[in-house]
Amino acid sequence: WQSLLSEMQPMDHLVQLIDQAIQDDPPLQITEGNIIKDGFNEQLDTYRSAMRNGKKWLAELEAKERQETGIKNLKIGFNRVFGYYIEITKANLGNAELEKYERKQTLANAERFITPELKELETQILEAEEKSVDLEYQLFLAVREEVKKAIQPLQVLAKAIST
């Protein structure tokens, strides 16, 4: 027993890594996301923030654009072809300074535009989910590699516990 006990190595670093990285109740499939805890990786936290706060950011931008243009019925919308857009009715087109607006689509009663700020938000929001799942998977693989490095000491520990 003593010889086995002397062969055991502390696993504090491994316990700490797993505790900091892996959710307490992760999904069954590692490709589903939400495996890694908040705070473990700054980039992942940024992606998650974009996913959680995207609608709020768009609402804030819409309010800002309404304030700047004076158009109360200006709205930000989304479609699969053009992505996010700012829609201004034709009746209000003359009221707006459109230098920063890039026309994307003309409708019967409105024009749809984008701005650099809206395009940046769109990129952050749409890429966040896809990139977060990929990044989580890479982080999970890195944690798994650290566990793999400790297989021998873990087996010694398991043997000591089982006897």
Structure write-up:
- The chain is α+β, with helices and mostly antiparallel strands and 163 residues long.
- Helix content is 55%, strand content 13%.
- It has a single domain (2-162), classed as MutS, DNA mismatch repair protein, Chain A, domain 3, CATH 1.10.1420.10.
- It contains 5 helices and 4 strands; from the N terminus they run H-H-H-E-E-E-E-H-H.
- Strand 1 and strand 2 form a beta hairpin.
- Helix 2 (12-21) runs antiparallel to helix 4 (116-149).
At a glance:
This protein has 163 residues and is α+β, with helices and mostly antiparallel strands. The chain has helices at 2-7, 12-21, 42-69, 116-149, 151-162; strands spanning 75-79, 83-89, 102-106, 110-114. It is 55% helix and 13% strand.
Blueprint (SSEs and pairs):
Elements: H1 2-7, H2 12-21, H3 42-69, E1 75-79, E2 83-89, E3 102-106, E4 110-114, H4 116-149, H5 151-162
Antiparallel strand pairs: 1-2, 2-4, 3-4
Helix pairs in contact: 2-4, 3-4
Instruction: Write the H/E string, N to C.
Output: HHHEEEEHH
Largest sheet: 4 strands, antiparallel
Number of strands: 4
Portion in helices = 55-70%
If classified by CATH, what would the architecture be? Orthogonal Bundle
Return Rg in Å.
26 Å
Assign the structural class, choosing from mainly alpha, mainly beta, alpha/beta, alpha+beta, or little secondary structure: alpha+beta
Total domain count: 1
Rounded average pLDDT:
89
Low-confidence stretches: none
The CATH top-level class label: Mainly Alpha
Could you tell me the strand content as a percent range?
5-15%
